[in-house]
Specification:
The protein is mostly beta strands. The chain is built from 3 helices and 24 strands. The chain has helices at 2-6, 12-15, 21-24, and strands at residues 55-60, 63-68, 71-74, 81-86, 92-98, 103-109, 114-117, 136-141, 147-152, 166-171, 180-181, 191-198, 201-209, 215-222, 230-231, 239-244, 250-255, 263-268, 278-281, 287-291, 297-303, 310-316, 360-361, 375-377. β21 (297-303) and β22 form a beta hairpin. The radius of gyration is 23 Å and the shape is globular.
Length: 378
């Protein structure tokens, strides 16, 4: 099935110049259906009549869109934009712009206007020697806004097309000359991508092969540069796309268990380890979970129909953390009322089962970039 294949292939643009395993596992989550998806701003019918808190930022066909008050707005032209994230103060965005054989990180205002270029990865030889170019992907800022975390191919070999992605940290005001690697894959098949700054360190996805030669993802944690770090999930779980809740106590992720599935999973986070896994969705090809800024639920991307393009979905908090139900007392005979014999013992209260809350499909005929995380601002 197309949507299943989509889960296991890498960023098509990168595959033009690399064979890196990381993106063999990440790409192609773009459907090959005959009819192209509509622009979010022109989709008919429009997005589900649902008002989510704050503003959600997504990517489609190289353009960035915002979704607020139930409506989409196109922020940039279709010019290679993806992977939006917010600055800690919530006033600006960071995003990646794909230049064809390189990519750079830019700062944009909340209306999509670029205000600053943070990296410059186009090599002097350009298309004549693509190996002179570099890629910056999955940008994130530290909580103080002073450090740019990103996936970067700084460890590739000179004059060849082999790319190995690692996690790098760069002073926002220092440029790549002052950047340094935090992880080192040593050009072995695989790669480290999508770092999430947490208190004391970073969580990221490490791609490698298991003992059966299958590419798998694992969440890792490290608290210092060039440390081996520590695995938070196993290869058998095959997890990726980590997202930290706003209160810093939970991680949402995608786990496939090395099968053609894609489960939405959450776990508690105590600053060093993950708690028991709680699988929320097992019947969709889920990608890029994102917590609502007020903690009211999780947005994610998944096809609306088999082999269809990826749509925006919303899972309310009550679906995975329902409030405790109120017990319903069972009436007992009134003392002194008509009865035969002694009064029966009071009946136990009845606690109704929690209602089944299903995810809501917010869009129906859009096609969002499932390799691109979403940003959500209050």
């Amino acid at each position: 099935m197309i949507s299943r294949v989509l889960l296991a292939v890498g960023l098509s643009v990168l595959m033009l110049v690399t064979g890196v395993t990381s993106y063999l596992v990440l790409d192609g989550r773009q459907s090959k259906v005959a009819a192209p998806p509509s622009k979010p701003t022109a989709a008919t019918p429009r997005a589900h009549a649902l008002v989510l808190p704050g503003t959600l930022y997504l990517a489609q066909s190289g353009a960035l869109y915002s979704f607020s008050s139930g409506r989409f707005h196109q922020l940039t032209a279709e010019a290679g934009w993806s992977q939006p994230t917010s600055t800690p103060d919530g006033n600006n965005l960071l995003a990646v712009k794909n230049g064809g054989y390189f990519s750079d990180v830019y700062q944009l205002n909340r209306y999509g206007t670029p205000t600053r270029q943070l990296t410059s990865n186009a090599g002097r030889l350009g298309m004549r020697d693509p190996s002179s170019n570099h890629w910056s992907l999955y940008p994130r800022l530290s909580p103080d806004g002073g450090t740019l975390w990103m996936t970067y191919d700084g460890g590739k070999c000179s004059g060849c097309l082999l790319i190995s992605f690692d996690i790098w940290a760069m002073p926002v005001n220092g440029g790549m000359s002052k950047a340094h690697a935090w992880t080192n894959t040593n050009l072995v098949p695989g790669g480290d991508v999508q770092a999430i700054p947490v208190s004391g360190g970073i969580i990221y996805t490490q791609y490698s092969y298991d003992d059966q030669g299958r590419p798998t993802g694992q969440l890792w944690y490290t608290n210092r540069a060039n440390s081996v770090g520590r695995a938070l999930t196993t290869q058998a779980e095959d997890c990726r796309n980590p997202a930290l809740s706003n209160d810093g106590t939970q991680i949402a992720m995608i786990c496939t268990y090395v099968k053609q599935v894609s489960y939405l999973t959450i776990a508690s986070w105590n600053g060093s380890t993950l708690g028991p896994r709680q699988t929320l969705i097992t019947d969709q090809m889920v990608a890029q979970p994102t917590w609502a800024p007020d903690g009211s639920g999780i947005a994610y991307l998944a096809p609306g129909v088999a082999d269809g393009p990826f749509q925006l979905w919303w899972l309310p908090k009550d679906a995975y953390a329902p409030p405790p139900p109120s017990p319903t007392p069972v009436p007992t005979p009134t003392p002194g009322g008509p009865h035969n014999g002694p009064l029966p013992s009071p009946s136990p209260t009845v606690v109704p089962p929690p209602p089944v809350i299903k995810p809501i499909e917010v869009t129906t005929n859009d096609g969002f970039d499932a390799t691109s995380p979403m940003a959500w601002l209050a």
